[in-house]
Amino acid sequence: MTIEFRGVTKRYEGGAVAVDDMSLTVPDGSMTVFVGPSGCGKTTSLRMVNRMVEPTDGEVLLDGRNVRDIDPAELRRGIGYVIQHAGLFPHRTVLGNIATVPLLSGWSRRAARRRAGELLDTVGLPAELGSRYPAQLSGGQQQRVGVARALAADPPVLLMDEPFSAVDPVVREGLQDELIDLQRRLGKTIVFVTHDIDEAVRLGDRVAVMRVGGRLAQYGTPSEVLRHPVDDFVAGFVGKDRGYRGLSFLSADGLEPEETATVAIGSSPGTSDRWRLAVDDDHRPRGWLEPGSTVDGALTEADLVAGGSLYRRGTSLRGALDAALSSPASLGVVVDDAGAVVGVVTSRHVLDVIERHPESVGAT
């Protein structure tokens, strides 16, 4: 379902303008991220889609139909909505929370709870959590339940208002991965609000950068925004390191991993003057053994140095560079889809690929 903003303005009593003459189209089945500083109208724009805020001027259309022509209750039941801190009902179980919209839409209790159980698996939560209450869940689990609740009636549109901003960075990255995977499988039309440019370029098919005063500064693909900011405001907002962020959109074709010395957990490794990568029985990396290390008996993970981030083969160059720079051995570990070691890369390998395609990261 396509979402279109046509000359939309929101002006409050006293003359304060939250959104100023915004026009853009969110393509069907895509994820568009609204990003900008506080007070730029991101959330107001989002909430005009489901009529929680009414525009002063202009139109918001769903597949060409003005949302003002749709009953608000009917409209909202057809749009998933996820907010910060999940907004779960504290007195309802997890299954009860997820089943809320299907029940309001006339589903039978049995069908609604069956759907809720299916969605627990969809968002990566174990079935046994269904009988718990929100207070018994971690922040990350609550956010997953919030996403499941928004998806329960299978809406074509999903609105997400800074849903991951209240969780720690590790959990946040996991939730972003879950959302990317869900979108790949479900193909919803998603409008996502964030103040974090890294989150915006990681998640969005398109990014709308907004400035204070509710003006749309630039709208385009993440790579377009990073490589060709339209003015000093956008350039400053995306940051001086936007060339590094641009690696997220540069293919790793030509980046060939090299072999590295490995040692198995549980073995007697002896000594070496080289860094050695420790692997488990499935050849998955567990950490590094420092040069000159001696181990009494069998090698355990307690003997290892943490290995830094991993690079999954076939993804963008940014992940490869992260892996190389975060590794204590300056060797980025490359893994396959099963998590098994393929080889290693260095930052020099990544730079060689970049130098063959300088235009791809040419943000200045």
UniProtKB/TrEMBL annotation:
EC number(s) recorded for this UniProt protein: 7.6.2.9
GO terms, molecular function: ABC-type quaternary ammonium compound transporting activity; ATP binding; ATP hydrolysis activity
InterPro entries (alphabetical): AAA+_ATPase, ABC_transporter-like_ATP-bd, ABC_transporter-like_CS, P-loop_NTPase
ABC transporter domain ranges (all copies): 3-238
Annotated signal peptide: none
EC supergroup of this enzyme: translocase
SUPFAM superfamilies attached to this UniProt entry: P-loop containing nucleoside triphosphate hydrolases
Keyword Transport part of the UniProt annotation: yes
Keyword entries, A-Z: ATP-binding, Nucleotide-binding, Transport
Family stated for the protein in its record: Belongs to the ABC transporter superfamily.
Name of the protein described by the UniProt record: ABC-type quaternary amine transporter
Organism, as annotated: Prauserella rugosa
Native organism taxonomy: Bacteria, Bacillati, Actinomycetota, Actinomycetes, Pseudonocardiales
